[in-house]
Amino acid sequence: MTHPHPSSFGLTVERGPDAVQVRVDGDLDFDNHDELTALVTWLFTPGAAAEPPPRWLRLDLAGLRCIDSSGLSALLQIRRSADRLGARLTLEKRPTCVDRLLDLTGTHEYLTAPVRKSGDQERPGTG
């Protein structure tokens, strides 16, 4: 009988003068995607992190081994939260598994494009 290996997962937060970096290590999947979204929600809540919400959230994905649809859902939720606040979101050091999932699901451009300021509208034939 094969026993699944427990998923090792870790989040490390570093606050800099211009941005907050969250390093994601391990597997971002059904078992732990809510840990990432809860952390980002906390960071984006005024006063919760004892500092103003970040204007730039950098997700360092270099240590990410695997991502499933729940992990993708977490990234989409984080992007929507960043957009609501007008914060910049970058997915840095993306491993191949992340880019492959973003390409397969048609979310690559949405998750990696710069945030638009509220009121900005994309006009046909531009951009």
UniProtKB/TrEMBL annotation:
Pfam families: STAS
Domain STAS: 9-106
Cross-referenced SUPFAM superfamilies: SpoIIaa-like
Family annotation (CDD domains): STAS_anti-anti-sigma_factors (cd07043)
Gene3D superfamilies named in the record: STAS domain
Official protein name in the record: STAS domain-containing protein
Originating organism: Streptomyces doudnae
